[in-house]
Amino acid sequence: MSLDNLTKDWSRYRKGIEEGGFHNYQHRWGxxxxxxxxxxxxxxxxxxxxxxxxxxxxxxxxxxxxxxxWMRIERYWDEDQAKAEFPTQGANFLPMLCxxxxxxxxxxxxxxxxxxxxxxxxxxxxxxxxxGSRYCSNNCPYRVRYFNFWSYYExxxxxxxxxxxxxxxxxxxxxxxxxxxxxxxxxxxxxDAAKMENRKVKDGDVTTACAQACPTNAIHFGDLMxxxxxxxxxxxxxxxxxxxxxxxxxxxxxxxxxxxxxxxxLEELNTDPSVMYxxxxxEELA
Amino acid sequence: MSGNEIxxxxxxxxxxxxxxAAPLPSIKRRDFLKxxxxxxxxxxxxxxxxxTTVTLEEGKETVxxxxxxxxxxxxxxxxxxxxxxxxxxxxxxxxxxxREGRALKLEGNPDSPVNRGKLCQMGxxxxxxxxxxxxxxxxxxxxxxxxxxxxxxEAWKVLEEKVGAAADKSAGARVxxxxxxxxxHQAVLIGEHLDALGSKRHFVHEAINNAVGRAVxxxxxxxxxxxxxxxxxxxxxxxxxxxxxxxxxxxxxATEYAKFRSGARGVLVVxxxxxxxxxxxxxxxxxxxxxxxxxxxxxxxxxxMKSGVSVPEAARAAVTAYEPAKAAEITGISVQRIxxxxxxxxxxxxxxxxxxxxxxxxxQGYQAASAVMLLNVMLGNVGKTIVSRGEFPFPQLKPRTGNxxxxxxxxxxxxxxxxxVAFFYGAxxxxxxxxxxxxxxxxxxxxxxxxxxxxxxxxAAQADLVLPVASSLEDWGTHVADYQPxxxxxxxxxxxxxxxxxxxxxxxxxxxxxxxxREAQKYGAFNDYFSYLQNAVASLPEQYKAxxxxxxxxxxxxLQKGLLTVDSAPGSLxxxxxxxxxxxxxxxxxxPLRLIPSPRLGLWxxxxxxxxxxxxxxxxxxxxVWDSWAELHPSTAARLGVQEGDVxxxxxxxxxxxxxxxxxxxxxxxxIAVPLGQGHEDYGRYAKxxxxxxxxxxxxAVDAKTGExxxxxxxxxxxxxxxxxxxxxxxRDNTSQRGRKLVATITAEQFRRTEGV
Lengths: 286, 757
Prior knowledge:
The complex is a heterodimer. Chain A is an alpha+beta fold. In chain A, 22% of the residues lie in helices and 15% in strands. In chain A, the strands form four sheets. Chain A has a four-stranded mixed sheet with strand order 8-1-10-9. In chain A, strands 2-3 form a two-stranded antiparallel ribbon. The N and C termini of chain A lie far apart (53 Å).
């Protein structure tokens, strides 16, 4: 949404989420993350640091919650074992990144439309527009927006570490909110390459840094508008649907087979995430 | 991902000047093959195709600088080059993205059978090793007790005096190399250098190793490193073998694990005293009393025997002695659990049983690991999930695998004043050696210590001469991993960019320089390591040039792929079980706890503590960043009266460390786990002064059979200090899903019904 439209039709913009969000998509980038495969190793997170110029903040700032990892591995312990002497199973790992919601709570609260919805279905952040109100972060149920409390570039890349910075994207300054972009620079490159060849972007042309690194292939990335993409097929196989598939006002699971593993985290909030998770699997041995 | 072809790198040594053609040294063919690393195999060399040092482009190689870039180099578009990851010893292949002459991002090489296009966080961080702000750029010489910067000319002159041709010939035998695991042509040249000096002293040390396991494999199976078909197993039982994190070839095993967990979905059972990353993915996790894994294995073997599985005669006495009830008493694992695991093993065939560092790092580590291997033999896994890898066709290139026995031997040799000169490369023994070995004092008895390193590490601080070397992204090389997957492979390393610090030699170049000092005639023809490697490829046996490949084509093809696949016919494995004797498990009233110096995927043995990404990457289990911690079971913590963040003093008979407590149920109450990697006294701004190094307080006890340090056998006591500091963790204390559906779980039975094959 451009700033012009925004000022013209402010109230409609604010209510957009209740109308189910934006529907006229060119692409709809999405993921499927298989928790049966995820081993919690952190490769995805470090790959994200390398790809997206994420700042290392140091122990002191980390302790205040000022860290910048767009992709993190959450680790939970089984609650039913709270009284047991030892855990009888492993941990519950959850790779958590921006869910690129179809009806994103972060977008309508931005007073300057820095958080907006792209025609690709991404929750984009316009750094130059951001004034650092942090309303978006406050409203994000997934806690995946990261605020530049400091000018990290002053300390995060002492020479020659700065030579590693990815020239395809920026280094952010103090006062700006940042977040996972689904490696939008890679998407851009793939779209440009396809355009040069006068064709559409096909499945496999683009993947995110996290998906590429993942040793167990737990992360799948692709276009949910592309019926042939592996991600679309996984979503269909697990009978998880996006709002706009049926113009649903709220997220509803229409699983014929409730045993299928697909689900979206906190989907009861009607955020319509673009990331589908596949349930973790465990033997019943305890 | 820009869809570019993988290119190979042309070193820009100067601008446009062709390197001089030089005739091959007039040496015997057999010697030549030995220098080239293909020695001791029946190699047929085509007489007409004997390589010269200049094999490319009609006898002349024009060296191209970035002033006249290759036509595929377009400003703003990244070009990908294949190379090798040197962050651990697994031998993964990488693709590096290069733009405007800078290496930016590393990915796994999809052609590599080791990592199959994937890369762990340590591999991802290769760029931060390369661009590290604390890299050394100038050689340093100790003058009046202090290391001072000198010129490269002076550095080579000093070396010429110490180990050159003019140096006393008889003194050559008193020169030693102390390295981490080395393989490929680097290992060949280190061997050649020692040969040229008349020394046999090559000490190879890794703190994280599987030397005891290799010894057991060799004795029982007849092969030190067979292939482990995790994907073929229906159940994997791991005794502390953290194959998803820190054991042998983690990325490769993780790709295998993904297959293992799909379709029919194998079961993972892990028994260990402290939960590892592999344990954190287990269907059934068993907290075994530290140092009693061998007894647990025999208890399971006993239960299997009772259910009709036959036991090899040699091991019958040991198995008979450990009834589940007795094993339960020793290990703390209930009889019911032992019988359950035995039943699971019987039910899921073939299975795979693995022994890791916590089993092997005991005074009876070899025996305990043998007890674990016995399970594989009893269950008929040998030949099914443990299969022969065959002999690597080029023995000279095989890795000299690191261990701790050589560390002990080196300290002893130094103490005995048996060494005049020691070269260090790829190892930081002053950091990894337990203080009880007295290594730092022993080093004073070596008059001249040369350290080849990128960083001012603890060993460099003890050096007389510090030689900065090129980073792995600036260097040439060939690497052979100890663990070879289905397809044997030599991984090729090529520079992704020009060196950041002019004059800094590659490791191979430094070795050639040292060799030329001694045997100018034999090595003079090789301008540099680059031309040496070209010659090595050109002199490969004919079978590698199938389809009429010219030397140039073979070289380019190899570099573009980043690897050379080699054939080695798998043989068959033996099952040669010997008697197993486990002694009494000792207890110590004064030191009631066992110290587990647990390795981390990330900081590894401490070598990655200077990488900011890895310091800020939360530990997979505790989620702690930028620090050390001591994992204590809640019952132990309660007994000591400590909570998370309280500082305890952990004391062994050999020293003490002070570290913050992390209370965690995934550790046995008799154990206290302190992760490896921190506690650097040197090693640059990101590493220095953070946390503690648990290796320092380990006892010098060794495994009786192999002489390997028993790294997991040290007994300690912990006492409260009264100091409290916040432990910085990701996610704070958020360990519960609080009823929300964040990580949902279904049963394996259900999974197999809907998605099984």
